[in-house]
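Hi R.,

As promised on Friday, here is the backbone we talked about, encoded as structure tokens. Could you run it through your design pipeline when you get a chance and send me back a sequence?
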């Protein structure tokens, strides 16, 4: 038997490794509290948890109504103010848990956006270089007419990332003057 041949090209494998490393680094950087909060949000987000909460509320209401029907003093008589308090506190806690995990997920999204931006800028620079080389090759080839291609010359110039935002805003105002 020969050695297995990788079905994935090396540059794609490197990209996958970099992406996996980004997620692994993000996971490794999580504190114990962040991991516990994420686990709790994961548990509360399951369909079984919703069913369990509904069953608990129905049991609470049913138990109190049965106690009332049999002449006993219910723990939480209608309109179930204790139940309302517990549900409100749970909603507050779950909201805080979700916001905490969302904040952490936003940090990962920012890292991904930064990586995407850097790759896009690098790709743009490489593409500009390829256009420059093609134009140079065309000019040096005696079999091809030497003509000026303003469009290719413009594309051969790498974009200035700092000026792109101002250019985009200026063009947007020209196209849609009503948009600030």
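Update: got your reply. Pasting your designed sequence below so it's all in one thread:
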């Amino acid at each position: 038997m020969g050695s297995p041949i990788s079905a994935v090209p090396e540059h794609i494998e490197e990209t996958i490794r970099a992406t996996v490393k980004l997620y692994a680094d993000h996971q490794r950087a999580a504190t114990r509290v962040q991991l516990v909060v994420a686990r709790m949000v994961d548990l509360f987000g399951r369909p079984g948890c919703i069913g369990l909460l509904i069953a608990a509320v129905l049991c609470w209401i049913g138990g109190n109504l049965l106690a009332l029907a049999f002449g006993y003093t219910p723990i939480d008589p209608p309109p179930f103010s204790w139940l309302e308090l517990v549900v409100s506190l749970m909603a507050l806690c779950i909201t805080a848990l979700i916001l905490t995990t969302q904040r952490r997920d936003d940090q990962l999204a920012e890292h991904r956006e930064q990586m995407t931006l850097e790759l896009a800028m690098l790709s743009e620079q490489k593409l500009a270089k390829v256009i420059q080389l093609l134009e140079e090759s065309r000019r040096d080839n005696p079999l091809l007419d030497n003509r000026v291609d303003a469009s290719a010359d413009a594309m051969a110039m790498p974009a200035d990332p700092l000026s792109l935002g101002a250019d985009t805003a200026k063009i947007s105002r020209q196209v849609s003057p009503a948009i600030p």
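One thing I noticed while checking it: The two ends are 67 Å apart (CA to CA).

Thanks again,
M.
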